[in-house]
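We were asked to recover a plausible sequence for a given structure. The inputs and outputs are reproduced exactly as logged, with field labels preserved.

PROBLEM: sequence recovery
POSITIONS: 192
GIVEN STRUCTURE:
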């Protein structure tokens, strides 16, 4: 009988200790960052991981990923480079793989900013090509978006924009279209 009482006492003690160790947390969904991540001298790395667009001329859809890295030359203004890797689907023809590289500039608007997010404008000019031909040509993009900071250094982003590309500057064939994207950025403090 003493063994059973001792076992029961130990079991009750373990259960009560286990209950005392329970920690209830909720995932962090926003962080009060102010201007800290976009100060001059900081870095940003990340990209769009779900960039979907529609081309008006070819009546085609495309999906791409766009890794990027940038440096804040002043508060709220970043310069950097991005790579575009994607797939374009065209009715009644083979799919095309697309690629490109472009320098970009990004400006974070002080108007409409909150302590956990900021609106921004993002523009790029670069070169692009596809698996369908050997032509590499001009690529332009203009996007607006919103960055929502989920931690002090990580933001989720949504963008909407217009893109233009011309595979060969000697002929008049061009591609224009609209696109939406989602992605993330990691903001790294600089040495300033």
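RECOVERED SEQUENCE:
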């Amino acid at each position: 009988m003493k063994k059973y009482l001792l076992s029961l006492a130990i079991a009750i003690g373990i259960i009560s200790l286990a209950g005392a160790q329970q920690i209830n947390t909720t995932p962090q969904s926003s962080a009060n960052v102010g201007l800290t991540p976009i100060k001059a001298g900081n870095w940003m790395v990340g990209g769009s991981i779900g960039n979907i667009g529609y081309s008006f001329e070819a009546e085609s859809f495309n999906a791409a990923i766009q890794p990027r890295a940038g440096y804040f030359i002043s508060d709220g203004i970043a310069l950097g480079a991005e790579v575009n890797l994607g797939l374009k689907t065209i009715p009644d023809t083979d799919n095309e793989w697309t690629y490109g590289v472009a320098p970009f500039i990004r400006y974070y608007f002080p108007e409409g900013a909150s302590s956990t997010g900021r609106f921004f404008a993002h523009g790029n000019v670069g070169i692009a090509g596809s698996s369908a031909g050997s032509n590499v040509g001009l690529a332009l993009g203009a996007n607006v978006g919103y960055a929502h900071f989920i931690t002090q250094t990580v933001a989720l982003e949504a963008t909407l924009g217009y893109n233009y590309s011309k595979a060969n500057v000697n002929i008049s064939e061009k591609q224009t279209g609209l696109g939406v994207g989602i992605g993330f950025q990691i903001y790294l403090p600089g040495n300033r």
